[in-house]
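User: My collaborator and I are trying to settle a disagreement about how two of our proteins should look. Neither of us wants to argue from intuition anymore, so we agreed to look at predicted structures for both before our next call. Could you fold the first one, then the second, and keep them clearly separated?

Assistant: That sounds like a sensible way to settle it. I'll keep them separate. The first protein:
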Amino acid sequence: MKPSHIRAVALALALGAALTACSDDGHLDYQTDYTNHRPLRVTGRPSTGSLETVQKVVWRLADGDADGLAALHTEPGDVGPAAKAWIKAYGKAARSEVTADFLDEGSVRQDVVLHFTGPRRTQELTVRIGADDSWGIVLDEPEPRQES
């Protein structure tokens, strides 16, 4: 196993343990999502917030939850159509193995490339801290690209 994968697994386990120790519903929902979905493969150096957010994006895609995906958007405005387009483009693929490449440093904003194994497509997204100091995404229309 590569050192980056070991670090990612350790970070995910630490995050899971920390969230398990909390007792509010949000953390229990996260723990349930974590155990009900395939593990997210990670490269790069995510922050705790960027990793949790990208996991939620992949889970919402896999579950076909357009409202849940739209709720992660950090900008004002209706992103319902964009969320539905993401579900259509990646919903099925998100049920298989997904790798997230975390680029740059992730203290307040981080670019991420999602690699879906099924159709060998990629999608870039930006995760960042929103106006309410919680992590979310900038949900633009999806632009799937074939991996080469």
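The second protein, kept apart from the first:
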Amino acid sequence: MDRVALRGLKARGNHGVFPREREEGQTFIVDLVLGLDTRPAAADDDLGKTAHYGVVAEEVVDIVQGEPVNLIETLAERIAQQCLKHGGVQEVEVTVHKPDAPITVPFDDVTITITRSRA
């Protein structure tokens, strides 16, 4: 299986369990790795036979900016399910970064990484 990766997609969202997170929002960063067979697209030089990563990026940003959820686990799941709607995508790895998480000690980042595939 081939891989198409999108790294560092940034969007502001209002996800979290605390009122301040819901009211003020924060930046989330998303990394994606789409698993698909790119041979048909390469053979015909046809964008329609592969995942259009520009469209995927826009969809991910819309999800992050959309309906708030409590957990980044839920956010990652929503993103994964949207990616799997693209015909050629057989598997997706989603990492959601929450670098401004409300943690009281110094830290660099909080992430969740999930892998989902077509059943």
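Some points you might bring to the call about the second protein. The radius of gyration is 15 Å. The first strand starts at residue 2 and ends at 13.
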